Amino acid sequence: MLRSITLLALPALAAGGLATGALEGAPPAKRISSTDDLQVYDTPRIDPATAPGRPLFEQHCAMCHMGGVAKAASPAFLAMVAPDSIVAALTDGVMRSQGAMLSAEQKVQVAEYITRVPFASYQRPAPPKQCTGRAAEFDLTDVPGPIGWGRDNRRFIPAAVAQLPAAAVPKLKLKWAFAYPAANRARSQPTLAWGTMFVGSQDGTIFAFDPDSGCTRWTTRLSAEARTAIVADPDTRRLYFGDLLGKVHALDAMTGKELWAERMSDHPDATITGTPTLGGGLLYVPVSSLEVVQAGNPAYACCTFRGSVVALDPATGREVWRAWTAGEPKPQGKTAAGAPILGPSGAPVWNSPTYDPVTDRVFFGSGENYSTPADSNSDAVFAVEARTGRQIWRTQLTARDAWNVGCMVGNDSCPTENGPDHDVAASPLLVTADNGRPMLVVGQKSGEAWGLDPATGKIAWRTRLGHGGTQGGVHFGMAAEGGTVFVPINDMADTYDARVYDAKLRGSGLHAIDAATGKVRWFTRAPDTCRGAKFCDPGISAAVTAIPGVVFAGHLDGMFRAYDSRTGRVLWAFDTRQPMPTIDGKTTKGGSISGPGAAVWRGKVVMNSGYGMYSHMAGNALMVFEPTR
């Protein structure tokens, strides 16, 4: 199945292992799910071999974007940018000098060649209704608290913010829904602050919604997909987030005006998957990449990307320090195809760093190496000084893990280690256990949870919860309530990696474990509602969110469930794949749920659905739920 994929289709595969950001890329060669009534990319009809934009790209763009200029985004990234954004960049954006040599028709042809999407079929809908009157007003008394990705990665929302008793959860009903424009996925986690819901989208639009009505207080269109949660700074009323092209943006929360934007790496395949973390006067940005997919081409010199965490001055975007997660790549020989092997490389940081104000330390995890040799920095947990980035300790959880897409498509770009691709994909959680001791709880794609001493990095316990693998184990995020940690496990039955896993160990579902010992307090297996549907799986890849007494979890089969945090009993469920009326009188529906989790605020539950990438179901739904009285 995978051996027939061409290089031009490889951006649709994924990066850094198939967890956070896994298999993300351009519209696939064929529609991968039934989403005919969605405003999503139609089946691509542009043949890159004969497209008139091909010679134009080769003449005017390839010299820079094929590696000639370090910061120029590679074709793998450009393929994921909206077609009108490319035309805009060539007309009056950053590429306007190159675009000056092209006619309006030629700019469209270049955009079609890059994205494989016919420009005429790309129709951007009208923006949502603009708020008027009191609905347009921000509530400045609703100061954002230190909760959620980018502030406190435990993903626990206290009662004062949630304002949703466990007894009211079974009464949740859909209040309103919104269809993200021209999207087949929804991966920016909504943030609620100042009485406003802030969320990004695949086409680069940032929305400031009135949570009650769904009208917008402002919208800002940027050039690339917003991939992270929106981090709200209560002191400056600024918003911070990362995008597909590896840029961090700062916006004025009251107006949507961009204050600064900085790219976090010179590498053309660098991106940002984990949410930047605000703490101690700095903004800590994790840097990952899609270079791992380039190795699907046996002629590609793999690999040169090195993962890192960058500390920025949040006022200006100026780099203060950088902590690398892989050694400097050096020549290691050549493949049978004659391509240079460069290593060590990779060890991307997919997760949101965890800041500890007590010790003034930052904790984060790394993914696999991309090329031979695997080093001691991959699949590891790091502790660094928050002010300087100096490494305090590093604990590797899985040794000798080097993997890239060449291993999936069966060419000799695959490292000799050949995986197992066991990224530390989710943020480490700094938890006070029931015995009063601090514990750093780590989830891994190996299907294991770990307890580490945050002072030394010494392993305190290790608990297997599933078989793990390329698309198994823990993906986007865990949550904690007190000394209990809620660990979602994906463990797909068909992982599309030609590997066989022990079905007896399949742990798809939600686990509650004791942070002090790793002992499992309860496990609720994910019900299988797929009934044989293609690209449907019951596992939990998305981050989970906890409020007092309840854990919210979105599943890859499109089911959104609320679990009793004491027993694991399902309290409420909603099928996001069903057609839903939108605030503008149209219809949308979700698909697989992965990436971000739920946001809960003032009695409302906000959730994204749709993850139209390799082996998952497309969708473009933003949903707001509220209990009936």
TrEMBL record:
Entry GO MF terms: electron transfer activity; heme binding; metal ion binding; oxidoreductase activity
> What InterPro entries does the entry give?
Cyt_c-like_dom (IPR009056), Cyt_c-like_dom_sf (IPR036909), PQQ_b-propeller_rpt (IPR018391), PQQ_rpt_dom (IPR002372), Quinoprotein_ADH-like_sf (IPR011047)
Which cofactor names does the annotation list?
A: pyrroloquinoline quinone
Sorted alphabetically, the keyword list is: Heme, Iron, Metal-binding, Oxidoreductase, Signal
User: Its domain of life?
Assistant: Bacteria
- The Cytochrome c domain is annotated at 48-118
Q: What Pfam families would the database entry show?
A: Cytochrome_CBB3 (PF13442), PQQ_2 (PF13360)
Family, according to the entry, reads as follows: Belongs to the bacterial PQQ dehydrogenase family.
* Protein name (database record): PQQ-binding-like beta-propeller repeat protein
Species the sequence originates in: Novosphingobium aerophilum
Lineage here is: Bacteria, Pseudomonadati, Pseudomonadota, Alphaproteobacteria, Sphingomonadales
